[in-house]
């Protein structure tokens, strides 16, 4: 049973009070959610977290960012990360401390890796009448290489990481003699002519449930993650000189996607056969992969999307509608132009 909590006064947001809390003048903290504080350097799977009960409301963000100048998603004190900058904007708007916001991302993208559909959640002790105001304020505070595409209300059961059904990553390769300079920050350039058909054959060997220990780099933590992951599909699509490798799976180990792509590139160069994949998988040894391929650079990789359990996305009653942003409009001039 929930303890009755006091009503707390909150300053209303206005353009002149840009950093104040966006919400009604009064709120009641009535709904329990779980606050999780993350640890750095774990696999892209369930992380070791210390859960604390916190009354409040939970909100989901869909975030797009150019990872070129960031040291990844995960919060770090010494270098700029996406989580750090988003938290700073949320702190200014809500007037809540970082530990109270409990911002958690779906995946820890590495330095230089981009995202179109990163998902995160945060909590507040107050409800909102509308999400359009905080949506506009967030994008107004954030740098142009980070955009909040969507804000929605979610039930207490939703967790940006624990509720995940699958994640989709895309890796782009520019396969031509001369690199297109407009793609240089987002596409890996292969000067070697690649064989897409051979790469598709090799990619099919990754599909299914396997132990991916041979494709995981060592992460900086004491916990040993579950190396068994389920890959639902691994597509190799040709778009002119661009090759787009798209993989969807239940989860991924540290550097797993980039290591799988590195081996596919070697197969595409016809340096190794496609059936080398099951041999390396069966070894469960990262050193076995190192005999054939090195990791590819991060800038070609993008976290494209995350799918969730449907019951964890149910819109709670009494919550504002989802905000997808809004277009500006101008009123018609009543005076004729001469």
TrEMBL record:
Q: Which Gene3D superfamilies match?
A: Pseudouridine synthase I, catalytic domain, C-terminal subdomain, Pseudouridine synthase I, catalytic domain, N-terminal subdomain
EC numbers on record: 5.4.99.12
Q: Which reaction does it catalyse?
A: uridine(38/39/40) in tRNA = pseudouridine(38/39/40) in tRNA
UniProt xrefs under Pfam families: PseudoU_synth_1
The protein's superkingdom reads Eukaryota
What region holds the Pseudouridine synthase I TruA alpha/beta domain? 62-162, 202-308
Enzyme class (EC, first level): isomerase
What keywords are annotated for this sequence in UniProt? Answer: Isomerase, tRNA processing
Q: Matching PANTHER family, A to Z?
A: PSEUDOURIDYLATE SYNTHASE, TRNA PSEUDOURIDINE SYNTHASE-LIKE 1
- According to UniProt, the name of this protein is tRNA pseudouridine synthase
- Which source organism? Rehmannia glutinosa (Chinese foxglove)
The organism's taxonomic lineage, starting at the top = Eukaryota, Viridiplantae, Streptophyta, Embryophyta, Tracheophyta
